[in-house]
Inverse folding.
């Protein structure tokens, strides 16, 4: 009864700020991620399995002239972070699609929710998972004999870059999740993301890729620069150019992903 | 017997119809081996310069053997996904009620698994030939190689069907996919067995996928191979997964 007595304009003024809304949605997103071990465990363990297999399967590649290190596990560690990004696309997109399917999203639209809070909140789970994965990969990598040339500070920068990469891939999942109503449809993104992943310098440095067209594709593929940014901290030490390209590509994809996510959100709001 | 094949054919026809009408179900599993082939053959060809790498037809042909095994095995595994989905949504139970000989259902799913794998393998072979894959083997060698792929396909299907019939839920898909994936990747995928390092080198000789891949490589190269030992290994594996599948079928029947 009291609420009905308050004029509408006053109620709108009372709308909680984005700084109140975003943490609430972020908490939900993080809890939801933590409560899905079936999603978290494969997303964390699968890149480790690939790392374990590739580091011995391709160990002989370190004897190629010009290979930058004699430890393939050090070389391959960077790729584990990128694989984690792929799971960020699927995880974020599927969660949002489930929200669409279950009607949670439509109910949110009826509340005075700030669109930016919704986007930021949805990505919080992705950040949490990215942090867990980055810490796991660095720890397991070091135990397996990998070295971080840039030292402890380099490890921290790796975590930061890994989170940026997860956010970048997560924003793609968000953009797709805004536009679909079934989680299965997000799964169809998987092969497309795999193209970007595999057509990069993931297995060999670009200068050692012999097939011309493949080297060309890898050179234009932003995933190569994200891997090389991580790899520079592991193998070279502090390489400003590689880091700038790595962060630049991740933040560029994040900006594009967020743009398409926000336009998708507007379309969805209009439909609702 | 006629009724048996009528059931199998009817089920296969329905599955093919759903694959044709929904390409999203069919294309991703077909594209994955193509991506692996392109990425490994294109991105890793420098590995053929590693000292000790000695495979005449070249790196594209070397990787082709892996992708052939992958396409064949996963063609079967993806049919296992279909079985799990059918049982999860109740269609599988209705099929059990309507079928006097329940193994006809597995034959129906199997027929589609073979067609899926054949289409994928044809696409991979065509891609290989376009990018200049060398084939040194005779027609008989290639027939042997594709026959081997067919047995792997059947093995993948029966394994996945065994899991699907036990769990009757799509949540069991990782249990079908991951063991097959590990089976394949714990073989000499990128380099010959002699160049493998560490623990994979130690376990590769005990992995049937190693022998299948090596035989396929010998058949492509036409260098002669001890195919009887490989055939024995894969047939033994096929017998094990057949028992596994039938026991799964009994569990599905008992569950009603």
């Amino acid at each position: 009864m009291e609420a009905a007595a308050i004029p509408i304009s006053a109620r709108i003024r009372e709308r909680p700020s984005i700084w109140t809304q975003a943490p609430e949605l972020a908490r939900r997103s993080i809890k939801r991620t933590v409560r899905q071990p079936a999603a978290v465990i494969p997303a964390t363990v699968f890149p480790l399995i690939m790392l374990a297999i590739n580091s011995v399967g391709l160990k002989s590649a370190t004897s190629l002239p010009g290979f930058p290190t004699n430890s393939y596990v050090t070389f391959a560690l960077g790729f584990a972070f990128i694989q984690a990004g792929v799971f960020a696309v699927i995880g974020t997109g599927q969660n949002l699609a489930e929200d669409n399917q279950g009607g949670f999203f439509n109910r949110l639209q009826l509340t005075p929710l700030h669109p930016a809070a919704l986007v930021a909140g949805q990505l919080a789970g992705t950040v949490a998972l990215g942090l867990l994965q980055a810490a796991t990969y660095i720890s397991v990598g070091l135990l397996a004999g990998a070295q971080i040339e840039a030292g402890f500070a380099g490890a921290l920068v790796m975590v930061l870059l890994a989170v940026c990469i997860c956010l970048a891939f997560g924003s793609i999942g968000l953009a797709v999740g805004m536009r679909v109503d079934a989680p299965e449809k997000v799964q169809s993104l998987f092969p497309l993301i795999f193209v970007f992943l595999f057509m990069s310098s993931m297995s060999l440095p670009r200068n050692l890729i012999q097939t011309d067209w493949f080297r060309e594709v890898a050179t234009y593929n932003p995933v190569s620069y994200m891997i090389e940014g991580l790899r520079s901290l592991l193998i070279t030490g502090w390489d400003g150019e590689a880091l700038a390209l790595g962060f630049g590509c991740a933040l560029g994809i994040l900006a594009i992903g967020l743009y398409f996510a926000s336009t998708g959100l507007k379309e969805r709001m209009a439909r609702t | 017997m006629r009724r048996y094949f009528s059931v199998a054919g009817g089920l296969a026809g329905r599955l093919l119809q759903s694959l044709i009408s929904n390409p999203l179900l069919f294309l991703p599993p077909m594209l994955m081996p193509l991506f692996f082939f392109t990425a490994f053959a294109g991105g890793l060809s420098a590995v053929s310069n590693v000292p000790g790498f000695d495979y005449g037809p070249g790196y594209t042909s070397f990787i082709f053997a892996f992708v052939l095994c992958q396409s064949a095995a996963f063609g079967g595994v993806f049919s296992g996904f279909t079985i799990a989905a059918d049982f999860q949504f109740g269609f599988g139970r209705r099929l059990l009620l309507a079928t006097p000989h329940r193994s006809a259902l597995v034959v129906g799913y199997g027929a589609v698994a073979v067609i899926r794998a054949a289409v994928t393998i044809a696409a991979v072979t065509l891609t290989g030939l376009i990018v200049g894959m060398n084939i040194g083997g005779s027609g008989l060698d290639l027939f042997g190689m594709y026959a081997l792929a067919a047995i792997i396909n059947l093995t993948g299907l029966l394994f996945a069907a065994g899991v699907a019939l036990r769990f009757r839920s799509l949540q069991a898909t990782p249990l079908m996919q991951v063991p097959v994936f590990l089976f394949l990747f714990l073989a000499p995928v990128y380099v010959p067995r002699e160049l493998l390092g560490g623990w994979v080198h130690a376990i590769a000789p005990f992995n049937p996928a190693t022998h299948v891949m090596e035989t396929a490589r010998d058949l492509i190269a036409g260098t002669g191979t001890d195919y009887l030992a490989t055939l024995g290994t894969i047939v033994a594996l096929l017998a094990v997964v057949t028992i596994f599948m039938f026991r799964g079928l009994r569990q599905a029947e008992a569950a009603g």
Notes: The two ends of chain B are 24 Å apart (CA to CA). Residues 135 and 220 of chain B are 5 Å apart (CA to CA).
